[in-house]
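Side project, low priority. Logging it here so it doesn't get lost.
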Amino acid sequence: MTTANYQARCSAIHLLRNGVTPQQVSASLGRSVSWVYKWRARYERGGWAALHDQSRAPKEPARRISESIKRRIREVRSELEAEAHQPGKLNYIGARAIRSRLQQEQVDPLPSISSIERELRAAGLVRPHAPAEPPKVAYPRLRPTLPHKLVQVDIVPHYLPGGQCVSCFNALDVVSRYPTGQAFAHKRSDDAMQFLLQVWRELGVPTYTQLDNESCFSGGFTHPYVLGRVLRLGLWVGTQLVYSPFYHPESNGYVERFHQDYNQHVWDKCFLPDLTAVQQQSPAFFAAYRQSGHHAALKGRTPAVLHQARPQRHFPDDVQLPTTLPLTVGKVHFIRRVDNTHSIRILNVDWHVPRAHPDQGVWATLELTLTQATLKIFDAAPGMARRRCLGHHPFPLKEAVQPLQAQFQLSLQMRTFVGNLITRSAQWFSTML
C-alpha cells in the first residue's frame, strides 16, 4: 500500500465525520462513490487500522493435508511400486491408484488427486510426460461417449522360450475400458473368429467392432472384392466392423495402450514356458483390471461398474455358426488415406475419390442391402455434425444378401427399447424435480 492511498482513505473519513456526503467526498477526492462507501464500512468495522491494505489470501485457506497423510501417500506409493513386480498384481502407481488405496483404508480426510500429485512431486517421485508428436494424417474417428458403442480388437505377438510365437488377441471397450483376451498358437481366421465370439459373449455385441488389417481379419491381400469370413461374421451378428488405416496403430490406440499393461502384468512378471501357461496366467490379470479404479477417464469407477451400468446386446449362448457364412444386411467401415492418385485401397481394389486431396484421411462405408451394395466415402466418421460425401461406387456382389437373423434382431430391438425406456424415465424424473 502506498502512503498516498492511505492518506486518501483517511481524508475521506475526516470529511464524512464532518458531515460531508459520500457524493461530495467522491467529487472532492476524485474517487468513485462505491470507493467511499467501501472505506467507510471498513472504518466502521475496524477503526483507523482497517484503512490499511488487507491480505488478499483467502479467509479460509485450502485445507492442508497433515504430515501423517503425506507420509502415508509416500508409503502407499512405495507399496504399489513393490507390488508392481509381483505376479498377479497391477502396475499402477499413480495418484489415482494411491487415492483408491487410501479410500479403501478409510483415510479421513481423503486427499484429492491434485494434493497427492503435489506431494509426489515434492518427494521427487514423478517424471514429466514427454510431449506427443503431432499426427501426420488426420484420420476420421468415432467418438463414443457410452459403453457398448465401440470395442477395439488387436493382436500382440510374444515368443516362448523355445522360440514359438504366441498370438495374444486382446479387446477393450473404449469407454468403459472393460477388457478380454485370449492367446492362440496361430492367428488364422479360425482363431480370429473364435476370439471375436468370445468378445461378443463377454462384452456384449457393440455397435462398432474395430480391427486392423491383418489377413486373419481382412480376408487376405490377393483376391479383389474379397469379403472374408471375419467380415461376414460381423455382418451376421449385427455389429459394424471398422478396419483401421494401414500402418497406423494410433487409430486403434485404446487397445494398443492396453497391450502395454497386458505385457507388463503377464509376460514381464511370469515365466511362461508354453501356451498353456499363458492361458492360465492371463485370466487373473483381466479380472484384476476390470476391478481396478486407476483409470483417470473413469473418475474413480472401475471398468466393471461402468460397463455393466448400461444394457448391452447379449450374444445368444446357444448360437450355432453356419458351415458357410452368408452375406447379411449391414455395414462395414474402412478408415483410409487418400494417395497421390486420389484413390484409396479397400478389399484389394483401388477406389477413386476425386473430391478428396492426397494425404487426406477419409471414412468409407460398404453398405449391403437385400438388393445392392454400395461403397460411400466421407470426410468424417458417422455421428459427426458436419459430414460430406466425397464419392460413391457400386460394389459387385456374386451372391444374394440375407436379412439379419431374428435372434440378433430381437437383441438389437430389446437394447433399443431399454435405452429408450431409460431416456424417457430420466426425462420424466427431471420434470418432477
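Brief comment: Confidence is low (pLDDT under 50) at residues 415-433.
Revisit when time allows.
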